[in-house]
Amino acid sequence: MPERLDRVAIATSRDVVELSWASRDSLLHEIRNLGENANPIRTAFEAVGASRPVELSRADQATLFSAIELWADSVTVDALPPGIWRLRCALGDQLADA
Question: Do the Cβ atoms of 18 and 84 come closer than 8 Å?
Fold first, then answer.
């Protein structure tokens, strides 16, 4: 039986951002209020294996970027779980590249 992952990687055009499992869980909890817009994001995070990073569509990247922005506005950047702000910045860079 495979072991539970302790980290998850998210691929962007410039970087691969790693989050701890706790940060991943916090992120998925935070986007729960996005309704159906977040379904593909949740599915991508839940389906990822140990050998490959999470890959998100452009629309999902934009949704996740916006969700992290709102989250940071409500708690401050320093209060975000480790890696979440770095993920936001990587998503922002990728969105700006297009």
Answer: no
Residues 15, 90 contacting (CB under 8 angstroms): yes
Q: Cα–Cα distance between 29 and 42 in angstroms, integer?
A: 10
pTM metric for this prediction: 0.89
End-to-end CA distance of the chain: 41
Residue ranges per domain, the chain?
7-97
pLDDT tens digit at each of 98 positions of the chain: 344 568 899 998 888 999 999 999 999 999 988 888 899 999 999 887 667 899 899 999 999 999 999 999 999 999 999 999 999 999 999 999 87
Q: Are 64 and 40 in contact (CB under 8 A)?
A: no
